[in-house]
Amino acid sequence: MDAKTLCLGALRMGPASGYEIRKLFEEGPFSHFHQVGFGSIYPALGMLLAEGKVRCEEAAQDGRPDKKVYHLTEAGLRAFDAALMKRPAPDLIRSDVLFMLFFAERLPPERVDALINAYAEAFRRSLSVLDMPPDCVIPPGRRFVRGFGRAIYRAALDYIADHRHLLERTEETPERESCAQSPNDRLERTP
Amino acid sequence: MDAKTLCLGALRMGPASGYEIRKLFEEGPFSHFHQVGFGSIYPALGMLLAEGKVRCEEAAQDGRPDKKVYHLTEAGLRAFDAALMKRPAPDLIRSDVLFMLFFAERLPPERVDALINAYAEAFRRSLSVLDMPPDCVIPPGRRFVRGFGRAIYRAALDYIADHRHLLERTEETPERESCAQSPNDRLERTP
DNA sequence: ACCGGCATGTAACGGGTTACATGATTTT
DNA sequence: AAAATCATGTAACCCGTTACATGCCGGT
């Protein structure tokens, strides 16, 4: 899903400026499952404008820099609906922390501790955003997605609380590479 | 975390060829939280070789193409340990499906259904891999990470089972944009 | 006085994804 | 006979991230 489609989605919820679109992905309702930065948004809006999928109205503000408020056109709406029918790319998860914890035995215990504390804290922060009751009735799709995020973060926090003891120093686990010597052994399970 | 570090991590578990490293990330123990393709692995191994962080032994096989088995050097081991001490990038989650379901009201009910079924199925597949009891004792770090993945996937499946009814057609939800008209309304909660 | 938030953009750089190229062997 | 697996690589391209550039306002 490219930056253009993401912008269309943001505008699907109502007119917005580039700056506001970023907030939607930074702290707003999209933040748990997609991200875009300024560097992608502004060019994307420019392209969408050229393609006639959005229009833009300059809005002068008092005490604030001018704002370009974009909104969907008919073509943009159609393009977005079409994008929603394309095959979704599989979910992508990238976690440096898990990668590091995978090698916990190689790490100083303080490091492991710091890593886990920070990790839990990050989940707590994300949860606190989602746990705030919405200020208004939100449609089912949004409610589902929001609840999904909450469920995942809760599960993560619970798991960390219940299993971090696995990583706390167990007095020098004897350094042992693993039971598998070759990569094949690690994958094959039916001899 | 770049492809080079990821390769070092894979080799940390034992010597492997490029092809085998990919499997580690495709179906192996890293697959839940990091991914790399051939296009990144082979160049990365080449660079690591040039930097003296890995060495390589050509292994002729019977009935198979030749294989280049790479293994860490002292320098490579040190480099990897150093990488484990760097600040981890925040977790990244990218889900087209959730983005689409966010707009469930705009989608034909069959589409929503298909999307959710496929989504659940994907989680079930991931879970089945992790639920297989390991063929040997695995060290605490790996156990923790593996369990983490399991917990998350379980939570996802449970949530879907319990809440998919939210998305099933509720006889024509009256088309209503939302209660928020401007993007600001969506974000501000303290007037 | 300075920092953080609002606001919009550009340019370069880097890196990963995709596609291409090749080829033997095993499975269906 | 075709498809999948094993196996290694290269090259181009796209696209996103990062850094840079600019400027005003409000709060500390």
Characterization of the model:
With 191 residues, chain A is mainly alpha-helical. The first copy, chain A, contains 8 helices and 3 strands; from the N terminus they run H-H-H-E-E-H-E-H-H-H-H. Chain A has a two-stranded antiparallel ribbon with strand order 1-2. The two termini of chain A are 41 Å apart. The model of chain A is unreliable at 176-191 (pLDDT under 50). At the A-B interface, helix 1, helix 2, strand 3, helix 5 and helix 6 of A face helix 1, helix 2, strand 3, helix 5 and helix 6 of B. The first copy, chain A, binds a DNA duplex (28 and 28 nucleotides) through helix 3 and strand 2.
Q: Care to give the gist of this entry?
A:
Two copies of one chain form a homodimer. Chain A is mainly alpha-helical and about 190 residues long. Chain A is about 55% helix and about 10% strand.
Layout of secondary structure:
The structure is a homodimer of 191-residue chains.
Chain A: H1 3-12, H2 18-26, H3 38-50, E1 54-61, E2 64-72, H4 74-83, E3 92-94, H5 96-102, H6 109-131, H7 140-163, H8 183-187
Antiparallel strand pairs in A: 1-2
Helix pairs in contact in A: 1-4, 2-3, 6-7
The first copy, chain A, binds a DNA duplex (28 and 28 nucleotides) through helix 3 and strand 2.
Beta-strand proportion of chain A: 5-15%
Query: Which oligomeric state applies?
Result: homodimer
How far the N terminus sits from the C terminus of chain A, by CA atoms, comes to 41 Å
**How are the strands of the largest sheet of chain A arranged?**
1-2
Radius of gyration of chain A: 23 Å
- DSSP summary, beta strand count of chain A: 3
What's the SSE pattern of chain A?
HHHEEHEHHHH
Question: Biggest interface between protein chains, with counts per chain?
Answer: A-B, 87 and 87 residues
- The total of helices of chain A stands at 8
Overall mean confidence score, pLDDT of chain A: 87
